[in-house]
Amino acid sequence: MCRAARRRRKRWSTGSCNCRRRFAGRGPFSVADAQELQALGAAIAEAADALVGGAVVEEVFVERGAELVLRARRDQIVPFMEMLRDDPRFAFEQVMDICGMDWPERAERFEVVYNLLSLALNQRVRILVSTDEATPVPSLINVWPAATWYEREAWDMYGIVFAGQPDLRRLLTDYGFEGHPLRKDFPLTGHVQVRYDETRKQVVNEPVVLTQDFRSFDFLSPWEGMTTLPGDEKVHQVRAERGQIEGPQGGNTP
C-alpha cells in the first residue's frame, strides 16, 4: 500500500469551524478597523494640505466603524481628487458614485457626496462637499470622465450646479420638467401632470388638478347593508308558504 493511501483522513464537522483561527492574520484584503481608517484619513488630510498649501480637509471621521468620511473645501475639490487618484499611497482610481443630500435648515443646504474606490489597495473613502442653490461646485469631468453621468443626475434631482460641466441637462425626468424632485421642499404631487389628450392626439402637460368626486357613504358593513342576495327569492317564497300552512302559532290551520 502506498504512503498516500495509509494517510489518516481528517475529521470534518459542521458543528464547529476554526476559520477564525485560520484567518486570524490580517492580510492585504482584510477590512481595516476604525483606528486604521482614522490614520488613513489623517494621512490624506496631511498630503492634501501639503499639496495645495492650505487646509483642504475640514473634518475626518469614521461612520459605523467601517466607513471613512472626509469633509473637504469646495474650491479645492479638483486638485484634491487628482491627488487621491494619482498618489500611490491612496490610489483611488475609480469614482463609484456622486450623489446629493438636502438639508433645508442649513445655510448651505446641499451636500455633494463622492464615493471613491481603490482597487489596488482595496479601500474606500467618502468625500463630502457643501454648497447652496446658487454656488456651483467644480466639475470632476477632467479627473473622471464618468462623472458626467452622476453630475447630471445630481443636478436633475437636487438642482446642484456643477461649474465646467459641458453637458449639464436633465437625465431622469422628462423634457420641460419643472423643479427638482428630491428636494425636501418639493411637493409630493409635483407641479405638472402628464396625460394623453384624445382630441389633440398627443401627450399634454398641465397643472396638477386633484379632483375628489362626490360620493355618498352609508357607513354600513357589507353584511348590514345587504338585505337580499341573488337567489334568495325562492327562500322567501318557501318561508311564506310554510307560514300559511303552519299558521301563526306553528300549528296546522283548520
From TrEMBL:
Protein's cellular compartments: Cell membrane
NAD listed as a keyword: yes
Bilayer topology annotation: Peripheral membrane protein
EC numbers on record: 7.1.1.-
Keywords, sorted A to Z: Cell membrane, Membrane, NAD, Oxidoreductase, Quinone, Translocase, Transport, Ubiquinone
Highest taxon of source: Bacteria
Catalytic activity: a quinone + NADH + 5 H(+)(in) = a quinol + NAD(+) + 4 H(+)(out)
Residue ranges of every copy of the NADH:ubiquinone oxidoreductase 30kDa subunit domain listed in the record: 72-191
GO molecular function: oxidoreductase activity
Primary localisation category: membrane
Name of the top EC class for this enzyme: translocase
Database matches in Pfam families: Complex1_30kDa
Subunit structure: NDH-1 is composed of 14 different subunits. Subunits NuoB, C, D, E, F, and G constitute the peripheral sector of the complex.
Function text: NDH-1 shuttles electrons from NADH, via FMN and iron-sulfur (Fe-S) centers, to quinones in the respiratory chain. The immediate electron acceptor for the enzyme in this species is believed to be ubiquinone. Couples the redox reaction to proton translocation (for every two electrons transferred, four hydrogen ions are translocated across the cytoplasmic membrane), and thus conserves the redox energy in a proton gradient.
UniProt similarity note: Belongs to the complex I 30 kDa subunit family.
Record NCBIfam families: NuoC_fam, PRK06074.1-5
HAMAP family listed in its UniProt record: NDH1_NuoC
Protein's recorded name: NADH-quinone oxidoreductase subunit C
UniProt organism field: Falsiroseomonas frigidaquae
Taxonomic path: Bacteria, Pseudomonadati, Pseudomonadota, Alphaproteobacteria, Acetobacterales
Gene that produces this protein: nuoC
